[in-house]
Write a structure and sequence with these properties.
Rossmann fold, 6 helices, six-stranded mixed beta sheet, 8 strands, alpha/beta, globular, about 160 residues
């Protein structure tokens, strides 16, 4: 069974989680790179506002073809309770996703807001079968228990 983790990471937290999944499950990694990186004040004044509005920022990948994967794991950090604008563009860039299984990953400090629900609904509306949603707070990342649950879910998806 082939798997990939597609993610946007602003501070490296989501990237680190994706790398752990790759190491444990053998998934391919696809890091989505925004064409413009927010820094300092612009993250709060522009980036967060675009996230709240569901905006999309231009990303390096024009399309992300997942037709060759049985399972697609999609990860985003939380900005103002929503997915990042680069991640919103990621979902729009997906090709060959029809009927694919998906797992949603969300990383946040404490409160994921509406992020997991927004991502799940978008994927399901596109025709993907969401088989799991995992929200990782700072505490969850330190404890490691949820990561183990995620790895079990990814490996079990081979038989679902």
């Amino acid at each position: 069974m082939s798997r990939c983790v597609i993610y946007h990471s602003h501070t490296g937290v989501t990237r680190s989680l994706a790398q752990k999944i790759k190491a444990a499950c053998g998934a391919d990694l696809i890091e989505v790179m925004p064409k413009k990186i927010y820094g300092g004040l612009s993250l709060y004044t522009i980036g967060m506002l675009r996230a709240i509005r569901g905006g999309q920022d231009p990303i390096e990948q024009q399309k992300i073809d997942v037709a060759g994967y049985d399972l697609v794991i999609l990860g985003t950090p939380v900005w103002a309770g929503k997915p990042t604008p680069a991640f919103n563009a990621t979902i729009s860039a997906l090709k060959g996703y029809e009927g694919r299984k998906a797992i949603v990953l969300v990383t946040c400090g404490r409160d994921p807001g509406q992020t997991a629900g927004i991502v799940r609904k978008r994927l399901e509306d596109m025709g993907m079968k969401v088989i799991g949603v995992f929200v990782f707070t700072e505490k969850d990342l330190k404890e490691g228990k949820m990561l183990n649950e995620l790895i079990v879910k990814v490996n079990a998806s081979m038989t679902e």
